[in-house]
Amino acid sequence: MASLADSFLADLDELSDNEGYPEEDNAEAAGMEEDGDDDMPDLESLNYDDLDSVSKLQKTQRYHDIMQKVEDALQKGTDFSNQGSILEEDPEYQLIVDCNALSVDIENEIIIIHNFIRDKYRLKFPELESLVHHPIDYARVVKKIGNEMDLTLVDLEGLLPSAIIMVVSVTASTTSGKPLSEENLEKTVEACDRALTLDAAKKKVLDFVESRMGYIAPNLSAIVGSAVASKLMGTAGGLGALAKMPACNVQLLGAKRKNLAGFSTATSQFRVGYLEQTEVFQSTPPALRTRACRLIAAKSTLAARIDSIRGDPTGKAGRNLLEEIRKKIEKWQEPPPAKLPKPLPVPDSEPKKKRGGRRLRKMKERYAQTDMMKLANRMQFGIPEESSLGDGLGEGYGMLGQAGSGKLRVSAGQSKLAAKVAKKFKEKSYGSSGATSGLTSSLAFTPVQGIELSNPQAQGNPLGGGTQSTYFSETGTFSKIRRTQ
């Protein structure tokens, strides 16, 4: 019988034999794959120092066609002639869908350019990327600073908040970066210009989508406004994608990572995206804005689902949802009802009726204070009481040792309840009806004869049984009474 090692070697030989054939059979397929890979750029051949090899969206024909259509549509104005037709068949809706897809591509392209700018400018100011997170703000700041080492000579007012400007200026004074070369600086500034151009194109696309929101999504626009509705659709990738999205994700669309630069987080709103730009959100008190944002996101999702199936082209459902949001927010702001002073009860001179009856009497007798406890709680004037320790520090006996015969135990009288129970027990017969008890015996022990035989039933029923003991006397006779007329 072959060993385990021999079986493993045999399996390896079979595998090596089978591997020879697929190499010859797949030679043609491998050649086809090599031909197909010629169209894809090789990763090693990509030049990341060149911006054109990284960012290619602005040179595509699709980008130019959509931007040209958007400009023509903005100049022509809004046309609602096809409002009653099916939404998917409207060419303007198809352009809006293309604009939403293009806005997503522009956003991804801006992120790619932002990574390119960070890689280049990291040599000059490595701490800037941790202070300014937004790609467009970062590109504007980089273009404004350039190769300047002293940021006191650079005016960043309007580009960043004043608190961030102060932190950037302090950090730049202690940075370990060095000025960039002319070539790297030129590439970095070119990348910043391209990012700003893409951002302007994205705003133009969103303006076009916003101008058509009254026709595409009237209910959603009634709740959040046309501008916010276009941003939500652009970020989600269309009205259909927005309708399929849960409300918790709609709330986060457009949320940015906020850098507070060490300042307090008490006044900052986290996990809020484009919905914070709505009129309802801004009119809500700060303490209720988190709840209001969740409510607006939920109602906006419902409105987007209504618009996706053209359920209400007039926008009446959206206005009703907006009114419901406002009523709920007003309800939240109402003060709690004041506590009314509770009046005192009417004084009653009559004593209140207390529970009585057999159960209460039994409970009172069960927990009644005994005579012994009454004596233990009583003391005579001028006579010291005895205690369990004998020195007056233990448990005192009161008048227990001084009353009556001087005994410690005082015989308590039988209570009324105990006497009543004993009387009832004595009156009750526990024998079986007409049958001899199993405990009775015919043997009797007497001091004279010792053991004698006796009839146990003779003593139990001395009058006999039947009608003799019940109705008739054994000694009496019937009397004859003469009838008188």
From TrEMBL:
Positions of the UniProt region annotated as Disordered: 1-42, 329-363, 453-485
Keywords: mRNA processing, mRNA splicing, Nucleus, Ribonucleoprotein, RNA-binding, Spliceosome
Sequence ranges of Acidic residues compositional bias: 11-42
GO biological process: mRNA processing; RNA splicing
Protein name as it appears in the record: Nop domain-containing protein
Pro residues composition-biased segments: 334-348
GO cellular component: spliceosomal complex
UniProt domain Nop: residue ranges: 216-334
Domain of life: Eukaryota
Organism of origin: Urochloa decumbens
InterPro entries listed in its UniProt record: Nop_C (IPR042239), Nop_dom (IPR002687), Nop_dom_sf (IPR036070), NOSIC (IPR012976), Prp31 (IPR027105), Prp31_C (IPR019175)
SUPFAM superfamilies assigned to the protein according to its UniProt record, in alphabetical order: Nop domain (SSF89124)
Family, as annotated: Belongs to the PRP31 family.
Compositional bias per record (Basic residues), positions renumbered to this chain: 352-363
Record flagged with keyword Cytoplasm: no
Organism phylogeny: Eukaryota, Viridiplantae, Streptophyta, Embryophyta, Tracheophyta
Main location: nucleus
Keyword Phosphoprotein assigned: no
GO molecular function, one term: RNA binding
SMART domains: NOSIC (SM00931)
